[in-house]
Amino acid sequence: MNAPFAPDHFENDAIVTLADVHDDPQARRISQFVQEQAGSPFHLPEWLVAAERGTGQRACGLIAQRAGRIVGWLPLTLVHSPLFGRALVSSGFAVDGGILAAEPGVASPLARAAAELALRRSCNEVELRGGATPVGWQEITGKHCGFVRDLAEDDEAQLLAVPRKQRAEIRKSLKNDLSVAIGSAESDRCVHYACYAASVHNLGTPVFPRALFDAVLDMFGGRADIVTVFDGPEPVASVLTLYHADTAYPFWGGGVWRARETRANERMYYALMCHARSAKGCTRFDFGRSKTGSGPFNYKKNWGFEPLPLAYSRWTAPGAQARDVDPTSDAYARKIELWKKLPLSVANRIGPPIARGLA
Questions:
Q1: Of residues 336, 262, 247, the one with CA closest to residue 40
Q2: Does the pTM exceed 0.90?
């Protein structure tokens, strides 16, 4: 076990240490704790290790224990980028994370230990993408919303649960000559990456390395898959989904330009909702986060999901400037427009090295 942090991190006999997420027995204990505390898939050691394998950014975390029992957990990715600096992120390449605490008084020492670890690792900041904001940290609100709701009891009820206007779009997609494939084989991964890369290029942002998607699928096994919609032989929309604690988390999804006119996205998400319930036993659907007031924000509302404002937290080292890696930030508007003009083949070649730092 790693040595504990400074003495002021001991509260009620709880000791904070640096966890080894690569140690199988410890990783299993942490995963069990995440389940008990209703954490997200992005709290799991599997996610941290997959992100490390797929991007080269270091997986780590802080664990609080009392008498050998885990009472707190903070998953972390140590991110280094020549363009965006160094930071500890909970969790890297995810939209959720933050501190899980089973008892009062545990979150504070974990937060202090995170700040101390950041200084030890020459990081200018710690970013928590979920959980309560530690005392003295900056709370960031109003920028993003999450969208979660229950799944219906069968396919027809799922269709009827969608508001009338969006339901009409789904019915049109069902009449189109589209087909759906579900899996995680090499062929599924190949078409997914092609659709996703085209989608993010159209949005003006660099694509993550394909190794990241492969690592997530490999680490999660049967708890992840890909749903792809084809128009004839051509893949037009695809999404990679995680299944955790009876909830489906569609995470990396996108489509080519023709996805809109063929209504492939409508077909894809409806098929995914039905698949998540019938094949994966899910009762909830987490549509992910979107920037407040954006196109994706309105699209999810059209499906009948109510936006839930999200709060993130940030600690910044004394005298340091907080990094900005939000692609929707006004500071990147001109760069986004220039990126859209790059040929897709060029963007796919130079994008992944950049995106590795956009955790």
A1: 247
A2: yes
